[in-house]
Amino acid sequence: MEEILTMPACDVVSLLRQNKVSPMELIDMAAARIQEVDGQINAVPTLCIERAKTKAKEMKAGQRSDSPPNYLHGLPILVKDLTEVEGVKTTFGSPIFKDNVPSYSNYLVETLEKNGAIVIGKTNTPEFGAGGNTFNEVFGPTLNPWNTAMTAGGSSGGSAAALAAGEIWLATGNDLAGSLRTPAGFCSVVGFRPSPGRIASGPSPVIFNPLGIEGPMGRCVKDVALMMDAQVGYHPGDPLSLPKPSYSFLEVAQQYRKPSKIAYSVDLGGITPVEKDVAVIFKQSVETLAGDIDVEAACPDLKNVNFVFHTLRAVMLAQRFGPLLKSHRELFKPELIWNIEKGMNLSMDEIGEAEQMRAQIYQSVVKFFETYDLLICPTSATLPFDVSTRYLEELEGKVFDNYIDWLTIVYAITTTACPCISIPCGFSSAGLPVGLQIVGPPRRDDIVIGAAAGFEKIFNLNRLTPIDPRH
């Protein structure tokens, strides 16, 4: 069991394809591992093992030997608790929905199950996914397997921690202000924020908003590419969803092409402070890559990104949660109340200005990628911090006046609409993980995946997971 639990998802799917292991056996293995270690990290508060076994039996009856390459053949996965799974408790991390059992699955789950994934449980998330530290009033905090006194990041902290602790091979996440990337960086796993529309999701009351997207998480780039192949494609219920690309992400990851020229910036042009230990490890990573690739210090113009992101995020939250706040105010955490009310109080002039500035940022990025193949920067401006700290209020002398500005280095990339991945790039002297963001040109998810697979070989850190939780 231990050998299979530590295998890459790609290798496990190969065993499934050859009938050397069964979905039922994998469900039992994952469930046993969760029972063994989850009490130490609280990553998977909800299991649906019987539903999973029912799905496995149905799959066995109808499985074909000529399944398409993106078919997962009954691989168990975990789904973030922001994403509905039919018949499985889905709380969104909120006391309002602590007993909610949806009668439908999100389009993302429909697609994954159609392509041979089996959902065995839900991973923890902060309330409605808001914040970079995974805790809520329903299930409590998720702890970092590398040091269980520390946060696993958020909002996909449950997924990242479960992967790092060997509870599962693949997990879903979603990303607005770095919710995929920050936990991946904090837990030394891989999280990919693809281009908006690449993965269909919904139904949603903010269906035309491109800021929040779905993405895969795994322990290595090839596994994330495998999951991308099983997730992508058009869905009529999602008006922003794109057709399935002509290429396979897994094939791209297996055929690394060295970039001609990449840009790097430790602080994205000075828009955020960065912890000294993170800056040192990032510089070492750049020097490592410079031995094989042409690298240059450069960054697109992102000076207005804080106003743009705060404005558009607040508008989205007001649209999504404004009515719920009016009826259940006492059950919302204060950070969300502030953020929703900020959106309610914005003027049309402010919203219009933010949209115009975002267009300017996008054009700056398009121009930037005429010179550079990629942009790299740290995934997080800080190392994982004490899980009891709701959010960072200060960093390197900079005092933040809200709960998300310590995440500027990730939400700045969100604002550009560029695909971006976080991969492990090092550890602090205290053994805490540091991640590297790799940003590609708009819609060039393939370039990002390909480069990430190559850089992963250079850094050679993915072999360090999974781990038993460390105290």
Overall description:
There is one protein chain. The chain has 471 residues and is α+β, with helices and mostly antiparallel strands. The chain has a single domain (2-464), classed as Amidase signature (AS) domain (Amidase signature (AS) enzymes, Alpha-Beta Complex), CATH 3.90.1300. The chain is 39% helix and 15% strand. The protein contains 15 helices and 15 strands. The protein has helices at 2-6, 9-17, 23-41, 49-62, 107-114, 157-164, 181-187, 221-231, 249-254, 276-290, 305-328, 334-344, 348-368, 408-416, 445-459; strands at 46-47, 75-80, 117-123, 143-144, 147-151, 170-175, 190-193, 213-218, 261-264, 294-297, 374-378, 394-395, 398-399, 420-427, 433-439. An eight-stranded mixed beta sheet has the order 6-8-7-14-15-11-9-10. A three-stranded mixed beta sheet has the order 1-3-2. Strand 2, helix 5 (107-114) and strand 3 (117-123) form a beta-alpha-beta unit. Helix 11 packs across helix 14 (408-416). The longest helix is centred in the C-terminal third of the chain and has 24 residues, at 305-328. The two termini are 24 Å apart.
In short:
The chain is α+β, with helices and mostly antiparallel strands and 471 residues long. It is built from 15 helices and 15 strands. The protein has an eight-stranded mixed β-sheet.
Topology:
Elements: H1 2-6, H2 9-17, H3 23-41, E1 46-47, H4 49-62, E2 75-80, H5 107-114, E3 117-123, E4 143-144, E5 147-151, H6 157-164, E6 170-175, H7 181-187, E7 190-193, E8 213-218, H8 221-231, H9 249-254, E9 261-264, H10 276-290, E10 294-297, H11 305-328, H12 334-344, H13 348-368, E11 374-378, E12 394-395, E13 398-399, H14 408-416, E14 420-427, E15 433-439, H15 445-459
Parallel strand pairs: 2-3, 9-10, 9-11
Antiparallel strand pairs: 1-3, 4-5, 6-8, 7-8, 7-14, 11-15, 12-13, 14-15
Helix pairs in contact: 3-4, 6-7, 11-12, 11-13, 11-14
